[in-house]
Specification:
CATH architecture of the largest domain: 3-Layer(aba) Sandwich
Helix content: 25-40%
Distance between the termini: 128 Å
Structural class: alpha/beta
Number of helices: 5
Largest sheet: 9 strands, mixed
Number of domains: 2
CATH topology of the largest domain: Rossmann fold
Strand content: 15-25%
CATH class of the largest domain: Alpha Beta
Shape: elongated
Strand order of the largest sheet: 8-7-6-9-10-11-12-13-14
Order of helices and strands: EEHEHHEEEEEEHEEEHEE
């Protein structure tokens, strides 16, 4: 400060200057601890509701029961567990949230195991009932990667077997178009449609076990559909039942030929080792 009497700076220190060991310096460490504790409390306050919500959802998912109306007997074990997980993954834990039910329906339809899901209904907070039409395994379509399961309409199902390991389902070989990208989509092609139509006759016949393949190779090049028997004979069927040409006999007549051969000769190929043509009014073989 200025000494008014002499006009010079005073040699005495100003009372506003902080010296070593003053109060704010001594409070630095306690203040840091206060801030640290406050931060921990804040994080705890923010985290507890999230942990509670997670615990509630986990408990809800473990307690929820999901029932399918008219569930086929073959929907069990691995398939059933997969469907339950898919449904549970789309439940938020809030039993009042109707959006969950729509999400469950969409997710299940995308699995490829259903033809349709009419309703997903919450009966009570811990029970969800689903009215659905399951897709029914009907045949397998073979490509280089395996035997792919399809339903009667050619809709791809989420199951592929190693080639030749598709149990009792008849393989369709020689399809022109590649399989769909995901389950639930239709396998495209009039050749697939023709093969599935022929199979509606084959699967109901007493002799269906004698059929080991439906061959649709080059169907789009006007080549006939062929039934391959367990003895290796190629039975020339012709075009599909809904794609026949005028020179052919009806599908019912072709079926009558095979029924007759089975009754009279014990085998639908009538004993011919190589080829049997039943597409026209006269049956020929070699």
């Amino acid at each position: 400060m200025v000494n008014k009497r002499k006009g010079k700076l005073s040699k005495h220190p100003s009372p506003l200057v902080l010296i070593k060991g003053s109060l704010p310096g001594r409070m630095l460490i306690p203040t840091a601890w206060v801030l640290l504790v406050a931060g921990v409390i804040t994080l705890w306050i923010m985290g507890v509701p999230r942990l509670q919500a997670y615990a509630t959802q986990t408990q809800y998912e473990s307690e929820i029961e999901i029932r399918f109306d008219d569930r086929p007997a073959w929907i069990k074990d691995e398939i059933q567990d997969s469907l339950m997980r898919t449904a549970g993954a789309n439940l938020t834990g809030d039993p009042l949230k109707q959006e969950d039910l729509a999400n469950v329906r969409t997710a299940l339809l995308n699995t490829g195991w259903f033809r349709d899901i009419a309703q997903v209904r919450r009966v009570n907070p811990t029970l969800i009932q689903i009215s659905a039409e399951f897709a029914q395994p009907y045949a397998v379509i073979r490509d280089n990667e395996g035997d792919h399961l399809v339903d009667i309409d050619g809709r791809l199902m989420p199951r592929t077997f190693p080639i030749g390991r598709s149990a009792k389902l008849t393989p369709i070989v020689g399809a022109l178009y590649e399989r769909p990208l995901s389950p639930g989509q239709f396998w495209q092609g009039a050749d697939i449609t023709a093969a599935l139509d022929v199979l509606t006759y084959v699967t109901e016949a007493d002799w269906h076990k004698q059929v080991v393949q439906i061959d649709i190779s080059n169907y789009f090049d006007n080549q006939p559909l062929k039934i391959i028997t367990d003895s290796g004979c190629k039975i020339i069927w012709g075009r599909g039942p809904n794609d026949a040409i005028p020179a052919e006999v009806t599908a019912q007549q072709k079926l009558a030929y095979l029924d007759y051969h089975f009754r009279e000769y014990g085998h639908i190929d009538r004993g011919f080792p190589n080829r049997l043509d039943i597409s026209g009014p006269v049956v020929t073989g070699q």
